[in-house]
């Protein structure tokens, strides 16, 4: 089985300063994690010897490419590769190129016109693959490990190596036929392996991402963070070369100006399970127009997107009683540019008294197999100080998944949203009392996702 393509160690080393990533290095990079920029910062080139201690050097082409001039690797082909020397646009562990317009949400209209091309040269010796590595995260992340999807596009390979996971199909895209592989390394890894080798490729990113979304392996709400092209050598690797690389919009006249920062949010009408947010409007001068706002919420240090609004207000529901939440707002334009985050609003929900009470929900995966799973128990607990007479749980079903059965609750499905309501005999719950239900679902073969985003609301 091929590597898990883990960059967690790299991020930790960069963060501690054990390995420096200089903004401008020499034209030949031999440091394990050495990097330099080309074309006035438009792209970043990285040596990135993340899986070995053997020597590797790359000669950087300031016009937009590099050549591996030294590679003394000799790794087993059933494990991780030695490195991933690459050129990229976007952000990789806080090392960002300029003018990439990334991160960008995959639902933005501008995402559809993002295009990239590469031309490569290959040696006749060694064991390696030549591949794009395109990263997506549920948040607009610029540092650390992405946890959404890693989409690899193999133009060529040499030796007995294969992608993460197993083959789940074939597809015709971008003028070629590709094997589709799927695995999970703590995030979804979707690999497209060309059945006939190519030395160049020109495609819109959405061509492959739309296929990944249709298979249930990726989501439109996730953010594209970087577009990388390079090589994974196991044995040798000298002579591998990116001759040219490009990334940008095929639409022309791309808006790269972010909206202004929204006004700081305020809260009102807070109950045990919800709060109302409002904020001052942002403005957009880039030409694509203001498209809306993303609402970010945190209970600890990390903010995560919990919803969006096309107005300057939002009601956040499904909260836990007696819990402190923090909110920030980001503006988004029609090209997918994100503003800086607003200031923070802090609110603590009520304890749940006054007749309604509040409920909490926790779900457990009892069992899972190649194309299905059972979620049981889904535990509903009254966290309020008074009794409740009913509850409603909502959660998100991944694309391509289907509910095939349920028990101890009445389930209904609208798009990807599932709503579970109590039966006649399990809606009445006193303070701290709990009940549970379960369900079974099918999913595309090889998809390892399970539903997420469980929220609970109670009634008096």
Automatic annotation (TrEMBL):
| Protein name in the entry | Cellulose binding domain-containing protein
Q: Which SMART domains match?
A: CBD_II, FN3
Where does the CBM2 domain start and stop, copy by copy?
352-460
Q: PROSITE patterns, from UniProt? A: CBM2 (PS51173), FN3 (PS50853)
Origin organism is Nonomuraea marmarensis
Matching entries from InterPro entries are given as: CBD2 (IPR001919), CBM2/CBM3_carb-bd_dom_sf (IPR008965), CBM2_carb-bd_dom_sf (IPR012291), ConA-like_dom_sf (IPR013320), FN3_dom (IPR003961), FN3_sf (IPR036116), GH11/12 (IPR013319), GH12 (IPR002594)
Where the record annotates domain Fibronectin type-III, the positions are 261-352
Q: Give the record's keywords alphabetically.
A: Carbohydrate metabolism, Glycosidase, Hydrolase, Polysaccharide degradation, Signal
Q: Which domain of life is it from?
A: Bacteria
Specify whether Transit peptide is a keyword of the entry. no
Signal peptide residues on this chain, from the entry's feature table = 1-25
* Signal recorded as keyword: yes
What are the Low complexity biased-composition ranges? 263-276
Q: What family, per the record? A: Belongs to the glycosyl hydrolase 12 (cellulase H) family.
Provide the residue span(s) of the region labelled Disordered.
251-278, 439-460
């Amino acid at each position: 089985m091929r590597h898990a393509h883990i960059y967690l160690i790299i991020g930790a080393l960069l963060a501690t300063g054990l390995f420096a990533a200089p903004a401008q290095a020499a034209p030949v990079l031999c440091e394990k994690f050495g990097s330099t920029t080309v074309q006035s910062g438009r792209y970043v080139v990285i040596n990135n010897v993340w899986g070995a201690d053997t020597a590797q050097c790359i000669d950087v082409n300031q016009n937009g490419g590099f050549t591996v001039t030294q590679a003394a690797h000799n790794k087993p082909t059933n494990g991780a590769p030695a490195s991933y020397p690459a050129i990229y646009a976007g952000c990789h562990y806080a090392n960002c190129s300029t003018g990439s317009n990334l991160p960008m949400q995959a639902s933005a209209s501008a995402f559809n016109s993002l295009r990239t091309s590469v031309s490569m040269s290959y040696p006749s010796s060694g064991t390696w693959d030549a591949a794009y590595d395109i990263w997506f995260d549920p948040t607009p992340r610029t540092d650390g490990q992405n946890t959404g999807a890693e989409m690899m596009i193999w133009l060529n390979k040499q030796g007995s190596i294969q992608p993460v996971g197993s083959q789940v199909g074939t597809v015709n895209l971008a003028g070629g036929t590709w094997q589709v592989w799927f695995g999970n390394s703590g995030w979804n890894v979707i690999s497209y392996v060309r059945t006939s080798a190519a030395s160049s490729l020109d495609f819109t990113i959405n061509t492959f991402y739309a296929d990944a979304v249709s298979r249930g392996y990726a989501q439109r709400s996730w953010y594209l963070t970087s577009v990388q092209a390079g090589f994974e050598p196991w044995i040798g690797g000298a002579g591998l070369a990116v001759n040219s690389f490009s990334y940008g919009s095929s639409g022309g006249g791309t808006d790269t100006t972010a909206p202004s920062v929204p006004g700081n949010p305020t809260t009102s009408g807070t109950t045990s399970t919800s709060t109302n947010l409002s904020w001052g409007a942002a403005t957009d001068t880039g030409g694509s127009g203001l498209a809306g706002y993303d609402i970010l919420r945190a209970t600890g240090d990390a903010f995560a997107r919990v919803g969006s609004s096309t107005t300057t207000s939002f009601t956040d529901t499904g909260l836990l009683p007696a819990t402190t939440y923090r909110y920030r707002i980001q503006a988004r334009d029609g090209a997918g540019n994100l503003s800086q985050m607003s200031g923070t609003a802090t609110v603590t929900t009520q304890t749940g008294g006054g007749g309604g009470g509040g409920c909490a929900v926790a779900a457990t995966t009892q069992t899972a197999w190649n194309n299905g799973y059972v979620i049981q128990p889904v535990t509903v607990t009254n966290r309020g100080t008074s009794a409740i007479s009913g509850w409603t749980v909502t959660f998100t079903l991944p694309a391509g998944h289907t509910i095939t059965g349920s028990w101890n609750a009445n389930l209904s499905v609208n798009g990807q949203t599932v709503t579970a309501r109590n039966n006649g005999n399990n809606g009445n719950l006193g303070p701290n009392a709990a009940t549970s239900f379960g369900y079974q679902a099918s999913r595309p073969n090889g998809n390892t996702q399970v539903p997420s985003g469980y929220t609970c609301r109670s009634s008096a």
